Fold:
Amino acid sequence: MAWTRKILRVNLTKGTCTSEALNMEWAMDYLGSRGLASKYLVEEIDPKVDPLSAENKLIMATGPMTGTTASTGGRYTVVTKGPLTGAIACSNSGGYFGAEMKFAGWDMIIFEGKSDSPVYLMVENDQAELRDASHLWGTSTWHTEEQIKKENQDPQIRISSIGKAGENQVLFSCVVNDLHRAAGRSGVGAVMGSKNLKAVAIRGTQGVGNIANPAEFQKVVAEKKQVLAENAVTGEGLPTYGTQVLMNVINEMGALPTRNFKDVQFESANDISAEAMAKPRESDGKAHLVTNQACFGCTIACGRISKIDKEHFSVVEKPQYHGASGGLEYEAAWALGAANGVKDLEALQYANLICNEQGFDPISFGATIGAVMEMYEKGILDEKKIGLKAPFGSAEALCELVDMTASGEGFGAEIGLGSKRLCEKYGCPELSMSVKGQEFPAYDPRGIQGMGLTYATSNRGACHLRSYTVASETLGIPIKTDPLVTEGKPGLVMAFQDATAAFDSAGLCVFTSFAWGLGDIQPQIDAACEGDWSEEKLQEVGERIWNLEKMFNLAAGFTKEDDQLPKRLTTEPAKEGPAKGLVAGVPEMLPEYYEIRGWDKEGVPKADKLKSLGL
Amino acid sequence: MQKSLYIDPEKCTGCLQCEMACSFEQTGVFNPAQSRIKVFTFEEEGRKVPYTCTQCDEAWCMQACPVDSIKLDATTGAKVVQDDTCVGCKVCTIACPFGTINYVVDTGKVAKCDLCGGDPACAKACPTDAITFVDSGWTGLDKMRKWAAKANEASL
Structure:
């Protein structure tokens, strides 16, 4: 079975926790995690609801592979209506929290309503209760984890929480679990904050024992782990260098967005790369990188744990940050570094750890700082308004602005709005590099054309994790395509979008898809779950999820106009590198994409498409 | 040849595949809470350390057991809890200096590593060779090789 078949429903208004049966019909159509939680959300909330009102709901969901021996089977998804975008938000995270939820016997937890005062949810197997969290309110995610373990005298509790950013409803705040992992994007942390829900603490000792065919499952899981181990990316690149393996590669492709996407190559990329992290520092002779870190069940271990230089200006008077901490990962290193022209690796690590500690998304934060720095250089914002000098490349400004955003003080409160609202406020909306209000990640769509369409059509706003065509356009996985052309990309994007939705919904990490296709996860799911799970069925589940999310967004008020890139990317050609002279070809790709999706010219799914998917 | 579990914490990534494999082998359920091997994380230093019973020759758990319910498996060298006679008195958990034998509330008995009868599931599941099952007389061989290489380098 692999599902626990149980949902915990927590009504924060009434203060009640109730158990209910999982809708197995929906599980058969949506698998789990991202897909199944999205189905519940769509059925239970009005798409036009204010994301930060009591009427919005927030769901934490595991998949059928979560808490099993399948490699990377430890993920959970946070699904809600996102305050940064107003679109359906689904952010997934690794670490250990998701598996613990499963071990406690729950497929998902649905939070509804709003508590009068700060609370946290304590779950111990079948028992769940809301507890006072007023003593945790105003503290960091790190303090919250430590304190909950201490007061329950149980170091084995796993916790997911918000920091000050979520409490202050920073629109790109996230939910952090196990200190350094996060359901990072779209502002899911602000929804928790709006509900006065500080944390979810879980201790599960029941395990997962209801695998449909355990012997077959163990056999196929071992085979598929071997596939990961023998693959150049999942067996060598990611374990050795982490996601930061990409920094120099993407820069050489001319697809590393630099200084708010004014440039596509960063002259100091090597200073903030995986290679730089592993090299002994001049200051103290020690390498930044301490060790590799896996999430639950992961045999890849792309995570990094680093120590900052104690003498660096950002922490010289802050010994609490001298210990080991998560990062840097590629997306964060890019957003905090290249996107702002900052080349000080230690400053990036400082900004990254504050993002983790106080719970906000380093991609959206860093990209928003990119917009702030451009506004500063253009004279739209000045030193008086910001409170400091903020030219491109200033590590000092980055470190001060991250503190201000964490505390919500001064100009930090405005940064917390995200780049779209901030740029609109100061009369220059064209400087926000975002789609549907969510900032771009680390791939310039002029140099990797498929990523332009990926950003434009992503149901949760600009995001690389909905269809990572970089795999094909850069690494040749599963087939090599030319990153500089638009031909064939609509089909490629669609295939990646649907497959990714299936991976996410299984409870597996999308990074396995460097080595695994649907044909590799299919036998694992089939051995674990009841029902007949073919590759075709998984593909259809992915397509159904994509269309379900799309229908939610349309009902929420999104139109074709929201499937466009900022004009910088479609009118200002790349100035250097292999993509020199190119703009992002989204306008020419979009009609074809709609057509092969079975959508009309306005991007609305046609009746027969919806019918064929049972929607 | 007798073999022992040998643990190299430096190679551990904290994935917990060992805990999952152990619990599945021992109980048929994926459940780290029932694993006989535990991975400890030391956040401040960023270290992960798997830890389990080392099968002492002079096993204090075995000597302390008042009903002789911990027996030596002469082939593997493992000290194995006999579920049919264990009375759950927990004296062994006090006697063990390392904490690697523990009481299980659900069964009313104690549980410890039994080397899976000579083919430990944790070692097979470890993706980074942080846990290996090697010649008991030569658990230090890898470390010696590493230092030998270093000594050789220095003499070049």
Summary: DSSP finds 25 helices and 17 strands in chain A. Chain A has a mean pLDDT of 97. Residues 535-556 of chain A form the longest helix (22 residues). The radius of gyration of chain A is 22 Å.
